[in-house]
Fold each of these.
Amino acid sequence: MRGLRRFLVDPAEARVERCELCATPVPSEHPHLVQVAERRIRCACGPCALLFDHHSLFDTPGAGGGGYRRVPDRYRADPAFHLDDAQWDALQIPVGMVFFLRNSAQPTEDGQPRVIACYPSPAGATESELSLDAWTDGVGATALAGELEPDVEALLVRREPTECLLVPIDACYRLVGLVRLRWRGFDGGGDARTAIEDFFHDVRSRARTLENRS
């Protein structure tokens, strides 16, 4: 996905960000939009983001037109999630973290959004080949997969400890930027491992279980 330079900059060196629709300055915590056709993330101020909110009264062909979708801020966890060794091996992911998103700009033959697997690496977000069987027999069969909104949310899966979290797509690219900035050497180094653990701790603290939906 393009437009992710903001996630690859050390926060201490970050410049003032602006809404990419109206140029209004925005705080460090601000909404994001996904430009669906280009898989591009854009910063937005509150009023502009509201125009493209899927649940907003302003979500009309004249406003959103399907070109932009607002990234939601919900986080979900499934304590019952389980992925055995065979299911993990079928994903063919070379690292212990991966996130899955449904891409409506690249539909399957039956018109459904295509599932894409990506993993954080020192080079950025790396897409991985994903067979339909590997998805449907593993992560795709879980309760969280049924909740996943195309283009704007992802399932973030970690092997050790085994866990799956439904998160906004910009959270995944925040993790990608963190790995790219902090990774050192073959195993990442202590600084990267600590930063990754802090990231997952933050995500877990925001997540509600499926039984406690808002």
Amino acid sequence: MKMLINGRLKGEEKIEIRNPYNNEIIDKVPAASKEDAIEAISAAKKAKDEMISLTAHRISEALYDTSQELKKRSKEFSHLLALDSGKPIKAARDEVKRSIETLKLSAEESKRIYGETIPMDAGIGGKDFMGFTIRLPLGVIAAITPFNYPLNLAIHKVGPALASKNTVILKPSLKAPLSALKIGEILNEYFPPGAINVLTGKASIIGDEILKSEDIDKISFTGGFKTGKMIAENSGMKKLTLELGGNDPLIVLKDANIEKAVEGTIRGSYLYSGQICIAVKRIIIEEKIADEFVQKLVKETSKLKIGDPLDPKTDIGPLINEEAAIKIEKLVSEAIEDGAELLYGGGRNGNLFEPTILDNVKPSMRLVKEETFGPVSPIIRVKDADEALKVANSTCYALQAGVFTENIHEALRFASELEAGTVLINKQSTYRVDHMPFGGFDCSGMGKEGVKYAIEDMTRTKLIIFNKN
């Protein structure tokens, strides 16, 4: 599969893309050179004028037509996601459905980029003036996306960027780049040459050109904290949106509905083998109900099927590569050595890692201090709600959090005092609605996604004042 630069497919396919489940080569992609990156940035800059000249309704139609083309090819894209990322096919189908909706949301919001009328009568002679604002595109947006939702997260950046008349350089993760290349080809059919460019290759080459280029107006990055911090330190005056992961807690208080909490834990810990920024990373539970909760969690976890992502019955597929699986294996072993109790799972076979439950985990263990990208349910027992809140907030990450309680007062308290960009009551942290604001605080990054909110970050406000005399 080739890169997309200035409306043309190009590049010699050299980099092997392997199926995480069986390690078979499924395709090859180009390794972009410094010159390729410069050409793509130049093409995006050149395409700005043509994008600005398009009407909002013309852009809306293009995005809507792209959504319908994706819908027609949903089976193809779902299969590609399962092969490319190792995502179970039923989860891959859900990602395609969400991607279609995100494109449709972008199409709708492209017609709702409004300014406002500003009263001018506060100053001297103000009654003689009329003021209003308009919103303008920033220019060229660099979108850097991860492997875990390679289609939907690409669309969450590209859709709003195009909707607001920006042009785009998309750099997908080499761990799962194929769906981004495919959607780029479709978008290219509906937008001017250079409006959408997709580069594959080493981040050190492509990213370096993006960081130092004065023609890039904004970087939207989803990935790890260290890389995000480096981008922030080296991006100059570029506008930034950084989604840098989470260490999301699921808090179960003594008055919670245990069955619903267990259901939320299963969904939150094991969806896409836990390789999600908003996956449940820590289960913080009051001691009074911990034994009952754990017993039911083990029972329900034992029902999950691990195996081939293309099998519709598979619940747990492989991690993205063996390096990731080995990392989880080491974290689990280290926690057990430090006193955690293994209740279920813990085994690794190549890239496959069993859904795993650990009890009596301490907040100081590396398994729960860092963002763990794996199918692990670490149980942290606490004596009361006060301790639960303290433990939940004992991390620099602040993306999302879930709280299970039937007490409205505790629900409101936790909603207010939890450090997180989103707090969900009686729902696990893996819930995301694509039109709502999404993003965290502190080590989890800056800025918001969600189509409407991304568009706000991808535009600038200009004030226009008329002297009526």
